[in-house]
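WHG domain-containing protein
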Amino acid sequence: MARRNDHSPEELTDMATRRVLDCLESTPASELSLRSIARDIGYSPGTLINHFGSFSLLLLAANARTLDDLYQTLHTAIHTANEEKSGLKAIASAYLAFARQRPNAWRLLFELRLADDEPLPAWQEQRIAALFTLLEQELLKLKPNARVQDCQQAARVLWAGVQGICQLTLENKLFSPAGMADDSEILINSLLTHYLTSWTEAE
């Protein structure tokens, strides 16, 4: 078993969070344990508790890496958008693809619960805000005179709708009619088309 000073705090954080994400490639978060993560990286569970504070905070640190990856994915999607697929549609399509490719890590973003007296750290709030900023900036391109508050609200409405479709897609509970191809993409495009048409035309 490795001693606490075998790695720097930054290295230990990197090792533990990478191991969590590696496990999530094939294992749901509900089946992970502090003991198994600690064993896999050669440390004791107590060392990880002393370092992160709790198993939940270790998972939150892994979530931070997932959010970083998601941000880069969506940022890239924006820059590859074209006339046929606007920035917002590119973001939504990339978001769905990310959820499909990394379902366990994606689910953990929303399933993880901290203690009631444990606020979300600022570093995590900043990552979430950065993701919404991507949406808000694309909304401003469609409606340059929109108020900041209106863009913030619209970004959350769109995210909530796309999030719901992604969730139901992963759970195979869209209950789409037989023969409907790529129903999740169709639903997302319908949502964006109708909502954005109404939003851009509103005073």
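thats it. The mean pLDDT is 92. The longest helix spans residues 55-79. bye
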